[in-house]
Design brief:
Mean pLDDT: 97
Helix content: 25-40%
Low-confidence stretches: none
Number of domains: 2
CATH topology of the largest domain: Aldehyde Dehydrogenase, Chain A, domain 1
Structural class: alpha/beta
CATH class of the largest domain: Alpha Beta
Strand content: 15-25%
Number of strands: 20
């Protein structure tokens, strides 16, 4: 059986391995999941699912430190942020329990016309069927909770494929779910190669496909889904920020530094493009750069580290290439702009990269913030809306009119006012529009997608 070696992305030292599943094994799991769903007498009752999830949250709480270290060690997220991810993941499991009580049907009035009179009608919600979840590396525990937790809560059998770089956190979560009392047939851990993954995702037995990752892969897989398979896709964006001349720089700069360099920019809503008035753009860029230059880059498992490695050396090379192109096209490097090692890149601030450079056109997914000057607010909004991404955006202003203008005119699924673009709590809707995604994430919203409504009409 082939195995996947997992490494610490900073020093590339091996830290574990997992066995890759063959198509024969996954085919058997899909058959098992389909049979489980079809045999309604074997469905886990809601009280049992709640019992399992409650115990799972307790097990995770008891192993918080171990989980945080695992996230840092395999994913390169600094310990300070890994601990926050674990806390969110525990809360996410609890949110599944809370949302289960709200995931319900409703009465439908029937006597609105004579044709419907004499009837009682209501809806219930039932599990949609087998779920396949394909996840990303950058939140190796919390993303799994967002994909697998709702499936467990709703009573859907689920097969989960973690990112190849970070399977250990997922494996730990699945084992803890078993320890909490979940029968193994309801949740299968299925690391596999890309060809097997495609075969699994596109199998007609899959009722719902949950994907977090690159737009190229997500849209490709969606185009191949079997008829009837529902899906949710979460990709990325360029997270534009509009700075008004009334913005409070003292609170804004630390927020932009956190939003831009958290997890070395490897977040789908990381601050990437900051648009500031031309008369203050230099000051904004310099203040971001001053704080970015003081960030400590290193191994994520070390307490002093602010910015860890990029997930693979190839990503460091890509970021270096994009920055070099921008520099050669006239961008001013305020700080950084250098590859520190095979696995790390310096926190970087670029001023006024050309609009036709790759870094201005694509998601950098690295520790780079670009600052652009503008003369008119409408010009900044037009540039922010120029790309086919629409995830989270933000505006910093003390002017209510400017705030409402940006909320209305920015092409985004969410607009933050006086906060960075990477802000999220796990119960809010989290979605990408246009090429940034399909469907809505967030515990409650995912649980709604993983159930379907059934109508009963009783003639009295």
């Amino acid at each position: 059986m082939d195995k996947l070696t997992v490494v610490n992305p900073y020093d590339l030292s091996p830290i574990g391995e997992v066995a890759l599943e063959s198509w024969a094994s996954i085919d058997a799991y899909l058959h098992e999941a389909s049979a489980l769903h079809k045999n309604k007498s074997n469905w886990l009752p809601a009280w049992r699912r709640i019992e399992i999830l409650d115990k799972l949250a307790g097990l995770m709480k008891a192993q918080e430190s171990e989980l945080a270290f695992l996230i840092a060690n395999e994913g390169g997220k600094p310990l300070v942020d890994a601990r926050i991810e674990v806390a969110r993941a525990i809360d996410g499991v609890k949110l599944c329990i809370k949302a289960l009580g709200e995931n319900k049907g409703q009465q439908i009035p029937m006597d609105l016309t004579q044709a419907g009179a004499g009837r009682l009608a209501f809806t219930t919600r039932e599990p949609i069927g087998p779920v396949v979840a394909v996840s990303a590396f950058n939140h190796p525990l919390n993303l799994i909770v967002h994909q697998v937790g709702p499936a467990i809560a709703c009573g859907c059998p689920v097969l989960v494929k973690p990112a190849g770089d970070t399977p250990l956190s997922c494996l730990k979560f699945v084992k803890m779910a078993y320890d909490a009392g979940l029968p193994p047939e309801w949740c299968r851990f299925v690391p596999c190669d890309n060809d097997v993954a495609t075969q699994m995702v596109t199998d007609p037995r899959v009722a719902f496909f949950s994907f977090i990752g690159s737009g190229r892969v997500g849209w490709m897989l969606r185009s191949k889904l079997a008829p009837g398979t529902r899906c949710a896709l979460e990709h990325g964006g360029v997270a534009p920020v509009i700075v008004d001349d009334s913005a409070d720089l003292a609170s804004m700069i630390p927020a932009l530094v956190k939003g831009g360099f958290y997890h070395s920019g490897q977040v789908c809503v990381s601050v990437q493009k900051v648009f500031a008035p031309s008369n203050m753009v230099g000051e904004v860029a310099n203040q971001i750069a001053e704080q970015a230059a003081n960030l400590t880059v290193g191994n994520a498992i070390e307490e002093q580290t602010d910015c860890g490695p990029l997930i693979r050396p190839a990503e460091v090379e890509r970021v270096a290439k994009w920055v070099s192109e921008a520099q050669q096209s006239g961008a001013q490097t305020i700080t950084g702009g250098t590859q520190l090692s095979e696995t790390t890149y310096a926190p970087t601030v670029l001023l006024n990269p050309a609009q036709n450079t790759t870094i201005s056109q694509q998601e950098i997914f690295g520790p780079v913030v670009c600052v652009y000057g503008y003369e008119q607010m409408d010009e900044a909004i037009k540039q922010a809306n120029a790309l086919p991404f629409a995830f989270q955006a933000s505006v910093f202003t003390q002017n209510l009119g400017i705030a409402t203008k940006c909320i209305h005119e920015l092409e985004a699924a969410a607009v933050m006012v006086n906060d960075h673009t990477a802000f999220r709590v796990d119960w809010m809707p989290f979605a990408g529009h246009q090429t940034s995604g399909y469907g809505v994430g967030g515990i409650e919203y995912t649980m709604h997608d993983m159930t379907q409504e059934k109508l009963a009409v009783i003639k009295l």
